[in-house]
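#lab-general

N.A. 3:47 PM
ok so I finally got the sequence cleaned up, no stray characters, all 273 residues accounted for. can someone with queue access submit it? mine expired

B.Y. 3:52 PM
send it over

N.A. 3:53 PM
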Amino acid sequence: MTGKTNDQVNQKHGDFIWYELMTSDVEASKSFYGPLLGWTFEQHGGSGMDYHVFMAKTKGIGGFMPISKEMADGGARPLWAGYITVDDVDKAASAVAAEGGQILMPPTDIPTVGRIAFASDPQGAPFYVMKPQPPEGASGPSEAFAAYQPTEGHCAWNELATADPDAAKHWYGRLFGFVQMDSMDMGPMGEYRIMANAGQDFAYGALMKKPDEMPVSLWVYYFRVPDIDKAVSYIAEKGGHVINGPMEIPGGDFVLNGIDPQGAMFALIGKRN
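B.Y. 4:20 PM
back already:
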């Protein structure tokens, strides 16, 4: 990995390229996450959407979307969801359904953005699939996931906590090319499986058995902060809750899991200064 930068990573089918918060209160969420992660925001209202792109410095890496009344009536709750790039959204959606997952939103074109579908795996963890179609003149890969260089404000790790790790490993392998690189024994919590996209020499994240107290299977995305202890204080001051950590991980970073003021689960990674 030495010598590469995040924008030199060649992205392919199965890579994480965008992160989205569906929230009951966009302005409150911006006030919470903006100072915490150094994000700024741009509102995009095209195609009847009220969408707020968040940027780490000048890089757009994700968005905030309000949960409409119709969505809430259908059971939608505040949630972070990642976008996995695919070669063909319609084929990916058909494969998800054929392999025991669910299509929560059918393939849909978003002008100047791409074609997307919202889905869940057989254990119920939701995610998007996407074939980007950027506007004319746009170039370069997504930097939402900082694969090589630790980058504040960007996602550093994608972790699936699932009711059935064995089934999830094989399912994501068949559909998206995910492969196991390594593993760690976490004792009573079982095996922590380090995962990569096939043919790449860096890990995108991991999968593990979800804790019993976690009600559903879920993807959890770890965004990098400069100081984990300052983040803990900030979360408490702003009405969020730390539910696990900070906990030291191999390499000297610390991680935590939290619940934001609107009820979405989030995760952070950073140093202890």
